[in-house]
Amino acid sequence: MSEPSLPACFGRQTRITTRLPALIPSLFALGARGCPAMPAAQLRSHASMPRDVAAIRRPADSPSIAVGALTIVTTLVGWSSVPLFITHFAGRLDVWTQNGWRYALAALLWAPVPIVAHARGRLPRGLWRASLWPAVFNGLGQTAFTWSYYKTDAASATFGLRAQIVFVAIGAYLLFPAERALLRRPAAWFGIALVLAGVSGTIFLAPAANHSAPTHALGVLLAVIGGVLFASYGLSVRRNMAGMHPVVAFAAISQLTALICVALMLIFGHSLSTARWDGGLSVTSLNPNQFGLLFLSAVIGIALGHVFYYIAIARIGVAAASAVLQLQPFLVALGAYLVHSAAVSPAQITAGCIAVAGALVILAVQWKLSRAARSSSVAQVPTVAAPK
């Protein structure tokens, strides 16, 4: 599964430069500009993966959508590699140490964003307070997400995380009256039924279900719990941080999430070989090449993954980007087979297809609702032009 993305909560059109050599500095500058809050009528959401920013639209003067296609495919491949990295290090580092170091390294890469914004006097008021609950949900979700790969195979855990979209839809219904139209559509409930049936199939039809049933069930349960926490993360971002720039918001959340993950590592981190507490120092047992892979997993999964995701949304829209990312479990299954020789049964793949089809149905219903609402908003509220 991918690292979670920011959900639908940002109302201003955003232009993101896509010249790769200047990518990170450009995003630092973009985040430092800040983003004023929009009228409530213009804030719309998509019930999709934790990592969706609904109101970032493709500006009229944006480059070819080929740029968006390239960046969303890069995001898909990068986020599909994360479970393979986690599985690789599961035999070398305990879950607390791996989680703590990965997020700490990624937070260092995101740290310049709030620093630059603060230096320019553009840091949104109340940013850190608003980031607190999203960071708590994200930190706990990261822990459950990582732990699931210690208990079951990568494909089963990633398919289990598809249940997240159901919790996002239900949570949005409970918290945001404007979102209740989604669950009033029979097609949405049909999509939810497909997701639940597909996820259940991936649990019971996986090869691991036959020879390590209790551990396998625990792994899938942890993946589902991770999905619940990531859904809570997304909903809390939308509730607390509407109107803030997504780059600045995620940079702040990543810093607080790193503090949570590092604190858990200091409390529970231990050596796998001796089972003795070491507060995360077992990472020193890795040779330079292995530590480089750990750093690479943080860059791909947390740092650059979100950068490319924001660019893709700005170019092709959130619905198309979310739809492409539904292919992630299949890439994870293929990668696990090629890298770790992990078996995936045809029945499990079929069940996974059902789960993904359900997610696409929910996305399609939400896209139609959001399109209608956006058309209504444009008719009522003056359009805000994209920055030049």
Structure description:
There is one protein chain. This protein is mainly alpha-helical and 388 residues long. It has one domain (20-380). Helices cover 68% and strands 0% of the residues. The chain contains 15 helices and no strands. Helix 1 packs across helix 4 (112-119), helix 2 (65-89) runs antiparallel to helix 12 and helix 6 packs antiparallel against helix 14.
What's the pLDDT, averaged over the residues? 80
Strand portion, in percent? under 5%
Helical coverage, percent range: 55-70%
Q: What is the total tally of β strands? A: 0
Radius of gyration: 20 Å
Summing up helix and strand content along with how strands pair, one would put the structural category as mainly alpha
- Helix-strand pattern, N to C? HHHHHHHHHHHHHHH
Q: In this structure, how is the largest beta sheet organized?
A: none
Q: How many angstroms separate the termini?
A: 35 Å
Q: How many discrete structural domains?
A: 1
Total of helices: 15
What would the principal axes of the Cα set say about the shape? globular
Stretches with pLDDT under 50, minimum 5 residues: 6-62, 378-388
What are its keywords?
single chain, 388 residues, mainly alpha, globular
Précis, in short:
This protein has 388 residues and is mainly α. The chain has 15 helices and no strands. The chain has one domain (20-380).
